[in-house]
Amino acid sequence: MLRASLNLLNQSLTKSTNFYVNFIPKLPYSSSPSASSSLQTIQNSHSKPLSNPLYNLLPETQNPNQIVNLISSSLKQTNSQLIHLQNDIKPLIHHLSCHEITRVLLRFQSDGFSALTFFNWVKNDLGIKLSSHNYCYIIHILAWCKKFSLAMKLLCELIDYVKDCSNCENVFGSLVFCSKDCNFDPVVFDMLIKGYVRKGRVREGFMTFRNILEVGFLPSVISCNCLLNGLLRLNFVDQCWLLYEEMCRVGIHPNSYTFNILTHVFCKDGNADKINEFLERMEEEGFDPDLVTYNTLISSYCRKGRLNDAFYLYRIMYRRNVVPDLVSYTALMNGLCKEGRVREAHQLFHRMVHRGLSADIVSYNTLISGYCKEGRMQESKYLMHEMIGNGICPDSFTCRVLVEGYGKQGRLISALNLVVELRRFRVSVSSGIYDYLMVSLCHEDRPFAAKNLLGRISEDGYVPKLDIYNELIESFCRCDSVADALHLKAEMAQRRIKVDLVAYRALICCLCRTGKCREAESLMKEMLKSGILPDPQICRALIHCYCKRLDFDKAESMLNFFAKEFQIFDTESYNCLVSVLTEDGDMNKLMELQDRMLKVGFAPNSLTCKLVIHGLLKSTARLEKNESLLRTGEFLKGILRETAGGPLEKWDNVANNAKKKVVIISSI
């Protein structure tokens, strides 16, 4: 029966070059054989044997027809004879083809040790390229001799080097083809499924499962579970159910491990409505759901917010003599906390302890996190003291959620006191928590408190990173404490932390805001020497600084410098200079500036036009005795009224018209 099935499959293999059906999309793995490998993937192991009658006139050690006999005789004696034999038959080595290798292997198909010794000698010592059929024969021999671990190793090696699973020379087809010539154990097909899954090539494993059924064999439930697990890891949920249905159809009975895997499939699938039907199917198969099954389902229900169903399963567990454990209770408490039902979660916690279970760090953290989310910091801190009293040390999650809870309420002093208390209990506080406190203090513009904290925690080995220094410098600069900010910059240099654009920008803007233009410009030159380019904010700060000091020439010089050197055409900076000139009332100087800036590449916007018109109106108001200028002033006022309320895109035309009006007024 077995041979008949194999012969039928062999006939189908010769008629078709591809008998795979695409059930799963291809996975991204490399299937190209290694260049240094000794495996020759496609090699016809049924090449014609050496049969030249003239060879028989030669001595035995020089007769190619005798090479199989010579090697077989040597193997039957001692393994060390192969080394001497290699020297004795050196002229015949090149006659040792894949066919001769197969003939030797078949002579030792009941002696796995000798067959493997010969195989390794050919592969490693002689360096002869082996065919996929040579591999299949040795795998069959080792499996027949119950040397499964050795067979599995060679099978995985063969899987690695076979080019393409859709090729007619695939591993399964080669194993079936070679099985007709030697003893074999069908377990080799189960091993092939496991080998594919182990190598991450689940698609080929699934196809192998289908082809094993076509041959007439039933894969073991163990190999099916292995394949199910592989499909689940890759989130091939639909294929998991296809495999399970196929198992039921052909009569492969699932075990408890199968149902636990399928339970995880249910959780990923999100179809929790079918769980009761699934549990009934388990019972029909003779398997009672165990603790793992219930915990998996309860966790799934809680994640989806279906707490009623989760508690239904929790009650069912007691009826079926399955005692909930810490995982069960923690999952339920977590579900309650997510819905804001922290008091009920705490009651469940007490029930768990009353029933003899000792709370662990996870269950405490679940409750502490729930209370912190509701802003009930007193209860959270009480639980922290309780867990410390029970000998459970708070972990990084406990510390972080408590500190952030205080931070969200704006109670940073309480958060700092908590850290001091944790250190007193010898609880390790992570650098992430210190980072959070430093940043929070800086955002509240309390840089001196942050600096004091840095000094204390640095004694414990805390080393601030670049972003923490930037936060401190920005906070000091917002408070106009530029001296402290510059001191931090010097400290960064001592620690060999390179100052970046963020710190330079904050310092330069602060210096400009406090009227220290030259110091700001000097700092910018230092920044340029370090290879950091300025941005529009730095340009804006410097221009504003010089404009406040009414140093028009320097402001214009800086505008030109940023435009020509860094292609920064900051219209806001340009408008700042225009605004100061209009207040000064020197329209000739304003128009000369406009001409120069247009040549550089600055384009006026709507605000520029407003400023120019405003300057012209002020200029005409001073010459009220000149009737023509007054009429011009009224005319410009009309323009301003008509355009001020219009959309911004119309101001481009106004800019062009404004220049014409300026020329008219200048000529009057």
From TrEMBL:
Keyword Iron in annotation: no
PPR repeat positions: 185-219, 220-254, 255-289, 290-324, 325-359, 360-394, 395-429, 465-499, 500-534, 570-604
Annotated keywords: Repeat
A Pfam family annotated for this UniProt entry: PPR_2
Keyword Repeat included in the entry's annotation: yes
Annotated family: Belongs to the PPR family. P subfamily.
PANTHER family tied to this protein: MITOCHONDRIAL GROUP I INTRON SPLICING FACTOR CCM1 (PTHR46128), PENTACOTRIPEPTIDE-REPEAT REGION OF PRORP DOMAIN-CONTAINING PROTEIN (PTHR46128:SF129)
Protein name stated in the entry: Pentatricopeptide repeat-containing protein At5g40400
Organism: Theobroma cacao (Cacao)
Gene of this entry: LOC18600817
